[in-house]
Amino acid sequence: MALLQVIPYVVSILRGHTKPERTTYFIWLILNVVTTTSYIALGARTTIWTGIAYSFTAFIIFALSIKYGMGGFSTFDIVCFLLAMAGISIWLITKNTLLTFYFSTFVSFIAYLPTIKKVYFLPATENTLSWVMTVCTAVVNVFALTTLRPNVALPPIIGIFTAGTVTYLLLFPVAHAKITQRNRKNTHKIHTFLNHPLFAK
Asked: How far is CA 18 from the centre of its chain?
């Protein structure tokens, strides 16, 4: 399902409905390529195909985002990109397996932020079906856990939180709009925070 969700996403991009966030997919592309390359360097063979598939899909969407996407040049996007690159750099430098895991998880989380910010303001620019499939995959991964050790449970739990946030904003735009409108009279804190010049487009 994690790979199948790419199909409706790409179709939606080509039809002009979905506008992927460039920073998000560029970070994911780099993360997947580095991860897959690391596996290959360690001698892995049977476990690299998932990484290759994720790298390929990230490349396809990022390539499409150059023409059909949005974002990538705001201060917020640049800060997210630099944080992600710092995380990847530390990941490559350190020889500690546990630190490598945490930094790769951190980079994946950072990559989500530009898309969450975009969907908060422009929910019509994302494909709901793809994100529902993504969050369902994250839920399945959580239920498949046999241990709650952080180095095992953290990625799927963060996956539910991040993909779930995007999916909520897509599934309930009316409720979200009403809450925002009602609270705007009292200077809605989240809305004001995201409208700060640092997060401007």
From this structure: 15
- Six token digits for residue 111: 């990559």
Which has the closest alpha carbon to 1: 130, 165, 126?
130
* Span 90-115, pLDDT tens digits: 878 876 777 777 888 899 999 999 99
How far is C-alpha 167 from the chain's CA centre? Answer: 12
**Residue ranges covered by each domain of the chain:** 6-199
DSSP string of the chain, one letter each residue: -TTTTHHHHHHHHHTTS---BHHHHHHHHHHHHHHHHHHHHTT--TTHHHHHHHHHHHHHHHHHHHHH-B-SSSHHHHHHHHHHHHHHHHHHH---HHHHHHHHHHHHHHHHHHHHHHHHH-GGGS-HHHHHHHHHHHHHHHHT-S---HHHHHHHHHHHHHHHHHHHHHH-HHHHHHHHHHHHTT--HHHHHHTSGGG--
Contact, 137 vs 5, CB < 8 A? yes
What are the pLDDT digits (tens) for 119-178? 998 999 999 999 999 999 888 888 888 888 877 788 888 889 999 999 999 998 755 555
Q: Is 70 exposed, middle or buried (0-12, 13-18, 19+ CB in 10 A)?
A: middle
